[in-house]
Structure formats: structure tokens, C-alpha cells
């Protein structure tokens, strides 16, 4: 069966990049697939999180999923720590993945920074936990932004090495030789890498010190307008065709954002706005962004104000997620050779 899995970290400041690169696509995929959308709280604690703030953030990410249009009843919305298979399978995969593979992960290098000796062991093993998230459900499709591509390639390598290392045991148990399917990344559309509004060479990020660099899903219409008006641009008018966006990262970024919000593509956006001055295009972008985000922001606020509904959605999601992950985990234990109580 085809199944979608994806995760978002509850580390504060959900932004337009998270929405366009991931959450908006989660909503679209519900038509075609059985979907699991996970608030990855175990991943969040790989760097220090204030406990009260973490709890608030978990609910806020769940609220963003629901407010954007994820159906928590037809599909599964849950937080990672409520399903023990994630941590359990991650341990087994820690023993499958090689140090050399993890040493190549660019996100670890970025996040650990100069003081690598002081990074948590969890931050280093982070991609193995991400592989466990996906493989616990034997998910076939994983919608993410461009920045997660390397982690997904690692998940594919880990799945393949597990299948190879344990091929005899898998055969003996009469299981499919491709016990873990190869998860396919879904990285597509005009906003797989939304850039900072202050610097077209940096990606929009939760951790950027400048709040003006990103549009938060909690920003109001005035904040959105101010940030877009102040967004960095070059002095030329918008080009007439997409070739003209080359070497113009800021223009490329704003056109991509517009296209994603309008469910369109950059060529169509330029057919309409090519030749316009940025002052004019930015006003159109403000109007579109506010029109698309403000209903989501309002619904998030409403949901977070009474966490009962969110917590119930997460609890029901966790129960249903566990029902899928448990048989996989039991099979993994048999494959590896652990003695199990029945
Ligand atoms: P996280 O929490 O950093 O980001 C959540 C999602 O948002 C995407 N994203 C972006 N997309 C476009 N432009 C941007 N500037 C931008 N910034 C972030 C991310 O690519 C991601 O899809 N490791 C993951 C969470 C995770 C996961 C998983 C994802 C844990 N387990 C299993 C898929 C499958 C992360 O840190 O995402």
C-alpha cells in the first residue's frame, strides 16, 4: 500500500517556508494517499527546549496542520513521543547506519556549528530517528522541502542495508525480501526552498536571528505587509520570463512564493506581472499572502486557545499510528533475533 509520512519539528516560529514546502502539500496529498503527519518532539530535544515552551509548540504545530486543512480524523496527526516504535526502531537503525554516512550530513555540520564537541549525541543520530519515523510505517512517499533531501537519501540507504544485512532472516520468516520499501521523496513545486526575505542566498529558517527574514504563521496582516515591503530586492523590474530570474535570487524567491500561494507556477506569474516594478508586485504579494494565511492564523489561534481538541486529536492519532507501527516493530525484533514474549 502507498502511504505518506512526514514530520515537522515543534521548535517555535513555524514560517511560510514550512507552510509552502511542507504543510500545504500535506493537505493536497490527502486526496491520493493514506497520510501520517507527525509533530516530531523527539527530534526537537536534540537541541535544548524549554519544557513549557516545547509543550506549547507541539500543540501549535498540530494546530497548524489542522488549520491548514489536514483532516485529523480521516488521516493521522500525532506527536512522535506518544508512539514508542519511533525510539525503538531508531535504536536498531543506529546499529545499521554507519558513522561514515552520518559524518556526511550537512545539516548536522550546520546545526552543531563550531562547537561540535558540545553537540548532543541525539543531534548526530537525528537522521537515524528520521529514518525510523518513515520506516516504522513502511511509508512509500515523503513530502518535504529541499533541505531534507540528504536525510531522505540516508533513510533509503538504511532501509536497503537493513534488508541486505538481514536478508536470510527475512527469508526464513517468510517476509517480503524488500521488508522496508524505499521511501520516495516528494520535493516538487515552486516553493521547495523558500529563501530569507533579507538575504536571497539563505533559506528562510526558524532560527534566523532576524524576525524580518521570515513570515511566521502567527504574524498578523500588518506584520506580513511590513516584512514583504521591506524584503530585499534588486532595482530592476520583474522579468518577462523565467530565464530572467537567473542570478536574481530575491526576485526568484518572491515569484516562487507568489506562485505557490496562488497554486500557479512562476511562468504564469511572470506572464501576469512581468515588467512590473517591485513596489507594485509586492503589494499584490501582500494581498495574496494575507488572503491565504490569515484564515489559517485565525484558526490556529482558536485551536490553541482550547488545547482539549488538539490533545484528543493527537491521542487518537497516536493510537492509530501505533496500530500500524507495532506489527512492523514486532517483525523487526523477530528479524534481528530478539526473544519476544508473545
Ligand atoms: P523542519 O521541522 O525543519 O521543517 C518542516 C518541513 O518544512 C520544510 N522547510 C522548508 N521548505 C521550504 N523552504 C524552507 N525555507 C523550509 N524550511 C523548512 C522542511 O523541509 C520540512 O519538510 N527533519 C525534519 C522533520 C522530520 C521528518 C521526519 C520529515 C522528522 N522526521 C520524517 C519527513 C519524514 C525537519 O527538521 O523539518
Automatic annotation (TrEMBL):
Stored InterPro entries: aa-tRNA-synth_I_CS, aa-tRNA-synth_Ic, Rossmann-like_a/b/a_fold, Trp-tRNA-ligase, Trp-tRNA-ligase_bac-type, Trp-tRNA_synthetase
Residues spanned by motif 'KMSKS' region: 203-207
GO molecular function annotation: ATP binding; tryptophan-tRNA ligase activity
Alphabetic keyword roster: Aminoacyl-tRNA synthetase, ATP-binding, Cytoplasm, Ligase, Nucleotide-binding, Protein biosynthesis
Subunit structure: Homodimer.
Family membership: Belongs to the class-I aminoacyl-tRNA synthetase family.
Name recorded for this polypeptide: Tryptophan--tRNA ligase
Organism, as annotated: Hansschlegelia quercus
Lineage: Bacteria, Pseudomonadati, Pseudomonadota, Alphaproteobacteria, Hyphomicrobiales
